[in-house]
Amino acid sequence: MSTSFDDNDEEDLAPPRAKREEEEMDITPMIDITFLLLIFFVVASKMDPTQTGNIPDAENGLAISAKDSAVIFIEPIGKDKVVLKRRDQSEFSSDEEAQSSEIVEYITNELEKSISKNKDQVMLLGDGKVKVSQVTRIQKIIGDEFQDMEFTYIAVKEK
């Protein structure tokens, strides 16, 4: 007596599967993966130490003389674009590399031509619509070249 099993016989022995309702969906695994990815990116990311700096506390009524400062005007011209201007309203180059060297040259000339030699600060005058990243980029250029300069003052137009 030999018995042979067909594939059909094994299928008949398996209990029928319960049908899942299409409306219910378990999102627990998706939430777990989301938190794992978040933890991974927080742990694996590097903080850029060049982006940190000493930001002085804002003091109401602190008067900074524009005549004792090298002044750079920052004016927005588009969504993410700005125009940088000197004290005489002449524009810096729109190319960022050329702009960096022009900013350094301008500040050096402004600091050297001071009669009283008290001119040792830079003032950035901007509009409220100027992005922080643009101001930070200019501060980084100044900070990299003039390491003995303690503060860069930022002024924003009030309406």
Structure commentary:
The chain is α/β, with parallel strands linked by helices and 159 residues long. The chain has a domain at 65-156: Nucleotidyltransferase, domain 5 (2-Layer Sandwich). It is 35% helix and 14% strand. It is built from four helices and four strands, in the order H-H-E-E-H-E-H-E. The chain has a four-stranded mixed beta sheet with strand order 2-1-3-4. Strand 1 and strand 2 (82-85) form a beta hairpin. The radius of gyration is 32 Å and the shape is elongated. 10% of the residues are buried. Its main location: membrane.
- Reported CATH architecture of the domain at 65-156: 2-Layer Sandwich
The proportion of residues in beta strands is: 5-15%
Order of helices and strands: HHEEHEHE
Number of strands: 4
Radius of gyration: 32 Å
Uncertain segments are: none
Distance from N terminus to C terminus (CA atoms, Å) equals: 101 Å
Major β-sheet annotation: 4 strands, mixed
| Overall form | elongated
Protein name: Biopolymer transport protein ExbD/TolR
Membrane topology: Single-pass membrane protein; Single-pass type II membrane protein
Region (Disordered): 1-25
Main location: membrane
Give a short overview:
The chain is 35% helix and 14% strand.
Which properties best describe this structure?
4-stranded mixed beta sheet; Nucleotidyltransferase, domain 5; 159 residues; cell membrane; alpha/beta; transmembrane helix; transmembrane; single chain
